[in-house]
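Help wanted!
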Amino acid sequence: MSALSIWWKSKSPIFRFLASFVALMVGFYAFYYSPIYEQHIMGPLLSIQAKSSNMLLNFMQFKTETIEDSIIGEDFRVSIKNGCDGIEATALYVCAILAFPFVGWRKKLSGLMGGVVTLSILNLFRIAGLYIAGVHWKPAFEFLHLHGGVIIFTLIAILLWFVWLAQIKKHIQT
Amino acid sequence: MKPLIKFLLITVLAYSLLIALLSTSAASGALCSSFRIVSTAFLQLTLPEAYIHSQEAFVQQKKDLNSFHIVYGNAEVIQAEHQYARSQNIKEYKISSHSIQLFFFQLVTVPISFLMALFIATPMPWRKKGSSLSFALLILLVVILIKVYFLILYNLNASATGVYRLSESELEWVLRLISMLTLGFSVMLCFVLWLIFGFRKSNLTTVFSDYFKNMPS
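Answered by r_m:
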């Protein structure tokens, strides 16, 4: 066993969780702002988000269409940009699960699948909601974009992580 | 689970109250002008070859309490312009300065309110909470000031002022850093600062300790 491995195992689980979480978040940001992400992933991902939110809006009888990362209606237009795409909050959830020690990969994977799908669906409602706010309640758009889009969405990611923890605990106790 | 849900609910409540409180004209005006003084002094200290000043912002002739302008340029050139105007006894003249507008609410109020709300909701002794929050706030403020620094550094180059000239690759890095330091990044940083300075020292860790006790090592 290497000295690093012995040192790592001698640390408290809380320390190991925090250190792994911070390292994973640093890794995420390095990738999220890398040329590879910006040139090959960002465009298609934002376009998929716009198209999916547009489908939701069409289902709600809004006459909207998409061009790349924008949802365009008669009176309003929403453009999804890097940093406003809900990816950072999703990354927080993913990193918090991956960093959690002692839990097997199978449980982590099921937690990741469930949480990421939930956050992705909520994100579509968030984007569609912002469009609706822009059409019907313009003064509230910036407020909802800032507080609902960033702060509340981050808190939802933390809540989902807590839910996953509760499920793990329940599983261990039974 | 109960203490964690209680923590989240108090965070939302505290955040809402802080935003309401800090949005009042008295609070936002005082905080914005304090930040304006601090950021101007920081920029003057870190970019001594540049001309750095700040100005209040106005919207329809009314003072905007949530934004201000940073005026920048080449200190040497502007000094020469002043000297020339004095020697020629010119009372009104234009200097070669440029400016950018900084929006205080997004840049400072939102992340600071979020960080404070996280600490307020954390179950830990108030004295410890105060000292940990102060330290976390200081780090957050430094990161925000670094963002402002890179913003001015980029603009000094974009406006071709002739000071702090960067190569193309350096400029690309600065631009990448600016695009990275978004509100989303500030919020994630708040969460990490809370994990390190708040959560780690709080009673919330006992909830996690219960988890670890039951885990096979």
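OP: Thanks! One thing I noticed: The two ends of chain B are 22 Å apart (CA to CA).
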